[in-house]
Amino acid sequence: MFRQAVRYGAARSARRSIRKGRMKGTGRVLSTTASWLSGNRFGGVSNDERRSFSTAGTQNPSMSSGNVSAAPFKKLMAGNRGEIATRICRGAAELGIQTVGIYSYEDRFTQHRYKADQAFQLDGSKSPVAQYLDIDTIVNICVSNGVEAVHPGYGFLSENEHFAEALSKNGISFVGPTVENLRDFGNKATARNMAIAANVPVVPGSEEAFATIPAAREWIDDPANNCSYPVIVKALMGGGGRGIRVVMTAKDLEPMFTQASNEALSAFGDGRCFVEKYVESPRHIEVQCLGDGTGNVIHLWDRDCSVQRRHQKVVETAPALGLPGNCRESILGDAVSLLKSANYRNAGTVEFLVDKHGQHYFMEVNPRVQVEHTVTEEVTGIDIVQVA
User: Fold this and answer.
1) Catalytic annotation on 108?
2) Sheet of 345-354, strands arranged across
3) Helical H runs in the chain?
4) Could you give the CA distance from residue 184 to residue 161 in angstroms, rounded to a whole number?
5) Which residues contact 178 (CB under 8 A, 6 or more apart)?
6) What is the DSSP string of 320-340?
7) Backbone region of residue 346 per phi and psi (left: phi > 0; alpha: psi in -120 to 50; beta: other values)
8) What is the pLDDT of residue 312?
9) 9, 11, 83, 345: most buried, per Cβ within 10 A?
10) Residue 358's CB: how many other CB atoms inside 10 A?
11) What is the C-alpha to C-alpha distance for residues 110 and 91, in angstroms, rounded to an integer?
12) Out of 15, 50, 113, 368, which one is annotated catalytic?
């Protein structure tokens, strides 16, 4: 994936327009964004106090004016590897926070190990990936070395509610969404029902997931469900384009459902899938948001990730070019409304499909920092990792 905004004429012009507030409706939103980021949204709190909104797991920052003399915590673990771990360490260092890294035996010579103030090797008896998924070992490292908070980055344990709960039980803050946010948005059927409750449009589909092909076939064949072929079968859990298959006709259901279910079971430990009406040739638009966990949510505009291969994003541009103004305003508003209804905390992305008629439909929420957050950073000039 290209991790920067595409820098050709239209994109540069749009970026300048966003920064200067010239795009329709941008002035008010940019003013709100600036106020929120500067602390005015919270009555003029300091930078350190403002940043603590996303990391203090048990208490929100004070709404009164005043300054604090120290960062919200003294020692932070980058619970990841590679580029995102380096970004986390850099952001923490700029805030005066000591950093702790973790690394697998195979990663013992990689950069992220040496960018942290301290670094600890994981359990080398396990596979490279399993080492970064080892909740008990990571929590023990935190407890033994005075770590006060963990930023999980993306991938690995970033959306694992059990990891967040384990940290909380040991008095360690999870720099990310709340456990409830992770639980609700990690389950796509639950997220879909939350979108419906928030009056956000969704593609016609099943409210619950199916464990068997006959159950899925029975639901599709029921005219009351208004979901005839072609349909798309999606894994209940996880993301990253895995566990997704398009089913064009009834005879394709068995092989496509089996493939999606097996892939989901292997990747996420849960083979259940739900069914939606297939939207042909859509645009894939996502909205970057930030929330404070108390119902205050802002957006940092949209990204277009329609260029994909096997449901994997290849190119991202920000903002989405050629998106009608009323469509953009509706998408941004629905993204914020949904996350407000969930009292969302930290950085998150709400994803939508837009059909050829300009109608948008909710897809899912990614409750974490995404790989492609850097595209939004290029356009807005905001360090999402540090702000979150």
Assistant:
1) no
2) 312-317, 297-309, 283-292, 345-354, 360-366
3) 9-20, 26-38, 47-51, 82-94, 111-115, 128-132, 135-144, 161-169, 179-186, 188-197, 213-221, 253-268, 325-341, 373-380, 384-387
4) 10
5) 57, 164, 293, 343, 345
6) PTT--HHHHHHHHHHHHHHHH
7) left
8) 79
9) 345
10) 12
11) 19
12) 368
Using DSSP bridges, classify how beta strands 149-151 and 75-78 pair: parallel, antiparallel or unpaired: parallel
Tokens, residue 69: 């003399």
Contact 147, 76 (CB under 8 A): yes
* Beta bridge partner(s), residue 312: 309
- Bridge partner residues of 297 (DSSP): 291
The residue type found at 292 is D
In the beta sheet, which residues pair with residue 103? 121
Q: Which residue has the tokens 């939103």?
A: 29
Predicted local confidence at residue 240, as pLDDT: 67
The rounded Cα 135 to chain-centroid distance in angstroms is: 20
Token pair 């040991």 in the structure block, residue: 170
Tokens 């709190």 belong to residue: 45
Task: Identify any residues that bridge with 382 across adjacent strands, giving them in sequence order.
Answer: none
In 3D space, the residue among 122, 137, 172, 175 whose CA is nearest the CA of residue 153 turns out to be 175
Helix or strand or coil: residue 120?
A: strand
Q: What is the CA radius of gyration of the chain?
A: 21
Amino acid identity at 210:
F
pTM metric for this prediction: 0.75
Cα 327 to its chain centre, rounded Å, is 22
Q: How far apart are CA 103 and CA 134, in angstroms?
A: 12
Q: How far is CA 388 from CA 50, 174, 333, in A?
A: 10, 11, 21
What pLDDT, on the 0 to 100 scale, is given for residue 35? 40
Say which residue the tokens 């905004």 belong to. 5
Residue 62 three-state SS:
coil
Please give the average pLDDT of every successive group of 10 residues along the chain, which has 388 residues: 37 48 40 40 36 33 36 94 96 95 97 96 96 97 98 95 97 97 92 95 90 95 92 83 90 95 87 90 95 97 91 89 92 98 97 93 94 94 90
